[in-house]
Amino acid sequence: MDGSQTLVVKLGTSVLTGGSRRLNRAHIVELVRQCAQLHGAGHRIVIVTSGAIAAGREHLGYPELPATIASKQLLAAVGQSSLIQLWEQLFSIYGIHIGQMLLTRADMEDRERFLNARDTLRALLDNRIVPVINENDAVATAEIKVGDNDNLSALVAILADANKLLLLTDIAGLYTADPRNHPDAELIAEVKVINDALRGVAGDSVSGLGTGGMATKIQAAEVASRAGVDVVIAAGNRPGVIGDMMADLPVGTRFHAQEMPLETRKRWLFGPPPAGDITVDDGALTAILERGSSLLPKGIKAVAGDFSRGVVVRIRGLNGKDIAHGVSRYNSDALRMIAGHHSQQISDILGYEYGPVVIHRDDMIIY
After folding, report:
1. Given this model, what pLDDT does residue 171 score?
2. Which candidate, 84, 122, 270, 363, has a CA 20 to 30 Å from the CA of 108?
3. In its keyword annotation, does this UniProt entry include Transferase (predicted)?
4. Which residue ranges make up the annotated binding site for ATP?
5. Is residue 210 pLDDT above 50, yes or no?
6. Burial bucket for residue 273 (CB in 10 Å: 0-12, 13-18, 19+)
């Protein structure tokens, strides 16, 4: 349908529970009603849902369990099924089918798995099915977890090629200070640039119910807006919040999409955590930032971490500041051997070569 948009709605645990120990079904059905209204108007809706552990605790009658990762994964395994049943029941009121997708960061960091997840997600949307997505907490280890559903929702927005991302939480948006401790704090209605001052404002405000505070929402907004997605942080209990956001009415804090978003083939680079660091000299830094050059071995001063070729690594200046992320064409051991040398020497030093550049400009995103 002309004018239709793709919206990702992320619902935090505090929104789903209303601050209690139980899922607030009356409130969730109201959120579903708003989504169903947009769906009926031709828009494509994706739900990123928290609450599996809370649902598991409720389903099992709030058992006393040891404070271990295994206990949390047990609760997630139990709660995920009851949580998805709830979403299915509520959307079925409006005759809408849902499809469950459980993702981890590992699904984002491998390009083939990224593309497979993207194809599945888009197939659901093309068939008017609402994807309901959560992190696969029952099996995910710390190494492959995204860690919070704010950042997961930003990656999902990239997967879905979404127009808008709505992060629903228990406060009305980003304030100049934590409004729970500073009554004179003011709501920041619009953000055009995310900088260190703004990150400082976000602080560590957290409700205590979920894993993400305002700082993770800022991270998510930065990732999604760089990829061309409008992001809004708003209160989940605000009447009509989802429809108002889609209508571009003043709601919460809006982060504007960058006008020149990353091309699609580079967006998956946001998914993986860097496998290592490459420190470059000032000449290489200037070439990358000002001339749009690829990274050559000659400009490498140091390599940190052990990684294989084809993974995402971080490029840093001599001052330690992040410059870019990119896919390395050589593993860490090979890079240490060719660092500081000219490209034509690669074959003589290693006995093989994968081309003259370490990270090609097409496989790099600049920070």
Report:
1. 85
2. 84
3. yes
4. 10, 169-170, 211-217
5. no
6. middle
